Amino acid sequence: MNVEEEVERLREEIQRLGKLQDDGSYKVTFGVLFNDDRCANIFEALVGTLRAAKRRKFLTYDGELLLQGVHDNVEIILKPKPAAAAEATTAVPVGTS
């Protein structure tokens, strides 16, 4: 699996484990991701995949390096896909054109 595939799988897992926010983003803590059996089986290097996703601006979290135990409560926020974000903010009332 290449980095792009891993980042996409990470997106899916954050959506599965996280909570949907009003802005279309998903929020999950590092501890939940790290301790999930399915994530442990998918990601050989979860922290590396998180950093790759952060560099690509798919998600955000405080700090650079997340460590088990120390950073279990750090929130990871998966940003909404651009199309989903645009749909949520540009709703046009029916009959107004």
Automatic annotation (TrEMBL):
Annotated Pfam families: Costars (PF14705)
Superkingdom per UniProt: Eukaryota
Spans traversing the lipid bilayer: none
InterPro entries: Costars (IPR044302), Costars_dom (IPR027817), Costars_sf (IPR038095)
Gene Ontology process terms (BP): regulation of actin filament-based process
SMART domains from the UniProt entry: Costars (SM01283)
Residue span, Costars domain: 1-79
UniProt family annotation: Belongs to the costars family.
Identification of the protein by name: Costars domain-containing protein
Species of the source: Malus domestica (Apple)
